[in-house]
Amino acid sequence: MTALADPTRRAIFEALPQAPRAVGELAATVGVSSSAVSQHLRVLREARLVMVRPRGNRRLYSLDPRGLADARDYLEQFWPSALAAYSAALSEAGGPRPPRP
């Protein structure tokens, strides 16, 4: 969670689901220097949210499914209580109850 708290880092992370990208491509996408992107990618790699693969003389960055699975598992623990709160709010407002998963 901390790794994604920075808006620039989050923008870099959000640019990766479409396709693996090199530092220069990410820098152009988010509008910061290549050196700043490299620093942000280091933090994201340490958090296991992105991984790097060499391809020729370039290094391509993509989302790391291991870290994403860890983040999903962490967030899923809150899902039942979020649904219960939503259901309670709908009941108080007199609206329809959401379907159970």
From TrEMBL:
InterPro entries: ArsR-like_HTH, HTH_ArsR_DNA-bd_dom, HTH_MetalResp_TranReg, WH-like_DNA-bd_sf, WH_DNA-bd_sf
All residue ranges annotated as the HTH arsR-type domain in the record: 1-86
UniProt xrefs under CDD domains: HTH_ARSR (cd00090)
Lineage top rank: taxon: Bacteria
Keyword Plastid applies: no
SMART domains: HTH_ARSR (SM00418)
Keyword Transcription regulation found: yes
Single annotated GO MF: DNA-binding transcription factor activity
Pfam family, one: HTH_20
Entry keywords, A to Z: DNA-binding, Transcription, Transcription regulation
NCBIfam families reported in the protein's UniProt record: HTH_metalloreg (NF033788)
Protein name per its UniProtKB record: Transcriptional regulator
Species for this entry: Nocardia wallacei
